[in-house]
Write a structure and sequence with these properties.
The protein is of the alpha/beta class. The relative contact order is 0.09. Bound molecules: adenosine-5'-diphosphate and zinc ion (ZN).
Length: 609
């Protein structure tokens, strides 16, 4: 097939905008979407780096509609294909999928539709695509483009590596002239280089968006009683919302899920140790239901395509900023206000350090892991804007955001020089063999079996720190370790030791400023933009709209968001459109949905209940 050039039959920007409005019901492109679409629709290759929720799907869906033939979308997320196809079908787009979940007869029907030119979009699993049967089928098909979604799966180093992705370079050889667009939300430069090389995209135009997620509010609080802190956070900010709670271990996942449920928060566990059927069931329920909290290990990851996850909470510290960004990024894909909330304490730090030191990896790998962890600790300890730190790590400069805990309530700092000296003295006097819990007992003069057994009650440091409370001391030890002013002996159950840098503090040559401990997020309840707060009558209306949506979703066996996203229902509740004409102006209502649901919605809006 000849490569269409921009000047010949290239679809015009006016056409792409018309499709955006008509089919998808959106008024304007976001960020680079318009440029990407025009470039690909004109036959160019593209590499698109855009954060989660940035709107990557439209970048290949609209060119597929503009160009002749079928757009083939390679995606590793088999579990989601069906939902994506359902959402497109709701919009009147002719879409189907091919993967191992289909029986032979259904697969055959899809293959026939493809060959007959009756599909705008076909989603295919990579292992399916690279079979001879599928390739031969595509040989006989008019192709609009190839979209390679989650393109970072070609990278050996990321944890989403998929060997089948390496074979996708054959698309370029076998189907020369069919434009290819690779998309990912992975921000780091190494991954980008690998994608370009492995998919032979050297000539592709690269579109890099800002990786900022302005609607996500970042909050990191001191860990005191994490379960109670989590519950308080959910009750105060996210009652009735869908969210994800990440924990490090499977055991803890199970515990927290049971505990939340017992306290009235509908929650389900998810981890790699569960049997497949139960895991799939939980994922499916999370995806489809309105207000479930998934308590999970990081095994719950790439397959999450839910637009209305309102919060991601970390009860344990991730390994790196990359991990933190990726996990928190699952909140607020729909662009509405969302929270990334984490509790963090000394034990987290010690645990992650121990993982590194005790792993079998080589020294180089350990060195990189330590540096990554340190960068994350810097983010946790900073008294400056969290977002500035986060973006800086990905090479992006920005200004204080006004939407993170430290911007909203700048942390108080205090002169901790004396406290640091006392803490280091306590480490030294007790022989550098004890962890923070015991050291705090000694400093606070809390006599117990251990202080007695070791003769620590007779030491000069016993009780010299009674003026500070326990959370403050915990903060002191945590900051000493995270700043390298003390170190941890991982061979000796996390005993704290003096470090080279301790000397200057002990001798009183170095001043130490610390953040005051903070266990609650600041400014609770003030978070939402005014238009997101519903006065009672509209709130009732929104409730009715959601109930109607759930009925529709159940009747058609599609996820609720495929009918209408929250955003659309909220706008309807707010504006109460008078008629079909007014309804058509609401974001997310395209021609097909208007035709299908318009009358029913107007009736629901204007009949008294
Ligand atoms: P990504 O794949 O980059 O995470 P999606 O393609 O799923 O993002 O889009 C994220 C959300 O933004 C979806 O709810 C989608 O409907 C919405 N969206 C995308 N583009 C636009 C736009 N131009 N106007 C309004 N909403 C949009
Ligand atoms: Zn900020």
């Amino acid at each position: 097939m000849p490569i269409p050039t921009a000047s010949s039959a290239a679809p015009s920007p006016a056409k792409s905008l018309a499709i955006l409005r008509e089919t998808f019901g959106f008024a304007a492109f976001r960020g680079a979407q318009g440029q990407v679409i025009d470039h690909v629709a004109a036959g160019g290759d593209a590499l698109v780096l855009m954060p989660t929720g940035g709107g990557k799907s439209l970048c290949y869906q609209i060119p597929s509609l503009l160009r002749e033939g079928t757009g083939v979308v390679v995606s590793p997320l088999i579990a989601l294909m069906q939902d994506q196809v359902a959402a497109l079908t709701q919009l009147g787009v002719r879409a189907a999928f091919l993967n191992s979940s289909l029986d032979a007869r259904a697969a055959l029907a899809t293959e026939r539709a493809l060959a007959a030119g009756a599909l705008d979009l076909l989603y295919v699993a990579p292992e399916r695509l690279t079979t001879p049967r599928c390739l031969e089928l595509l040989d006989r098909t008019r192709l609009a483009l190839f979209a390679i979604d989650e393109a970072h799966c070609v990278s050996h180093w990321g944890h989403d590596f998929r060997p089948e992705y390496l074979q996708l370079s054959l698309l370029h050889e076998r189907f020369a002239g069919v434009p290819r667009i690779a998309l990912t939300a992975t921000a780091d430069p190494q991954t980008r280089t690998e994608i370009t090389a492995r998919l032979a995209l050297e000539d592709a135009r690269v579109f890099v968006s800002s990786f900022d997620r302005p609607n996500i509010r970042y909050t990191i609080v001191d860990k005191v009683d994490p379960r109670a802190q989590l519950l308080r956070f959910i009750r105060a900010e996210h009652a009735g919302d869908a969210g994800i709670v990440y924990c490090l271990s499977r055991k803890r996942v199970e515990e927290i899920a049971v505990w939340l449920a017992a306290h009235g928060v509908p929650a389900l566990p998810y981890h790699a140790g569960m049997d497949n059927a139960r895991r799939a069931e939980h994922q499916d329920r999370f995806q489809r239901e309105d207000a479930l909290v998934m308590v999970a290990t990081i095994a719950f990851g790439m397959g999450i395509d839910k637009p209305d996850v309102r919060f991601v909470a970390h009860l344990d510290l991730p390994k790196s900023i990359e991990g933190y960004y990726q996990e928190t990024g699952r909140a607020g894909r729909d662009g509405l206000a969302a929270d990334a909330w984490m509790t963090y304490g000394l034990a987290d730090l010690l645990q992650q350090r121990r993982f590194i030191e005790q792993s079998e990896a080589d020294e180089e790998f350990k060195r990189i892991s330590r540096a990554k962890l340190d960068a994350l600790l810097g983010l946790c300890e900073t008294a400056g804007c969290r977002r500035v730190r986060l973006l800086e790590y990905f090479g992006e400069a920005s200004k204080p955001c006004g939407n993170c805990d430290t911007c909203l309530a700048p942390p108080e700092t205090w002169d901790a020089t004396e406290a640091a000296r006392k803490a280091l003295s306590a480490i030294y006097r007790t022989g550098q063999r004890f962890g923070a819990v015991h050291l705090i007992d000694v400093l606070r003069g809390k006599a117990n079996e251990r202080t007695g057994r070791w003769g620590h009650e007779r030491l000069s440091v016993f009780g010299i720190g009674a003026d500070l409370d326990e959370p403050t001391w915990r903060g002191v030890f945590r900051e000493l370790v995270s700043r390298g002013l003390a170190r941890v002996d991982h061979g000796a159950h996390g005993a704290l030791k003096l470090a080279e840098a301790s000397r200057a503090v002990l001798k009183g040559e170095q001043r130490v400023e610390m953040r005051r401990a903070r266990v609650r997020a600041p400014a609770l309840r003030k978070r939402r933009r005014p238009e997101e707060n519903f006065a009672p009558p509209e709130a009732g209306l929104l409730g009715r709209l959601k109930a109607w949506r759930l009925d529709q979703a159940r009747a058609q066996s599609v996820p609720a968001f495929a009918i209408f996203q929250d955003r659309t229902l909220e706008e309807i509740a707010r504006c109460r459109p008078q008629d079909i004409e007014a309804l058509s102006g609401v974001a997310g209502i395209g021609a097909k949905k208007l035709e299908r649901y318009g009358t029913e919605l107007i009736e629901l809006l204007w009949t008294p209940n």
